[in-house]
Amino acid sequence: QVQLRESGGGLVQPGGSLRLSCAASGTLVSTNFVGWYRQTPGKEREWVATLVSGGAFAYADSVLGRFRISRDNAANTVYLQMNSLKPEDTAVYYCRTEVRGAKYWGQGTQVTVSA
Length: 115
Hints:
Blueprint: E1 3-7, E2 10-12, E3 18-25, E4 34-39, E5 46-51, E6 57-59, E7 67-72, E8 77-82, E9 91-99, E10 102-105, E11 109-113
Parallel strand pairs: 2-11
Antiparallel strand pairs: 1-3, 3-8, 4-5, 4-9, 5-6, 7-8, 9-10, 9-11
């Protein structure tokens, strides 16, 4: 069974950094794309970044230049390094993958950017 588990969220001041982790089981992050999304109350879930199996990546304009997605195949984990955080980055962050057409989401990790 495919499972994703996010961790690393927390409270950080504006301008600070956090690194989120998405640990996978039941599938290999090296062979499937993994995306990061975020959601705030009352809004739709928003795409943040994607890393595909071949190593290509993409970012939403709102995080370009501040966030970096990476992968550790040995740990079967995808990371989201978030720098220069802004209050508008506050959200629950989720990772997602697809295996044989089925979508899988983690439970989410809360990121709060506040002074």
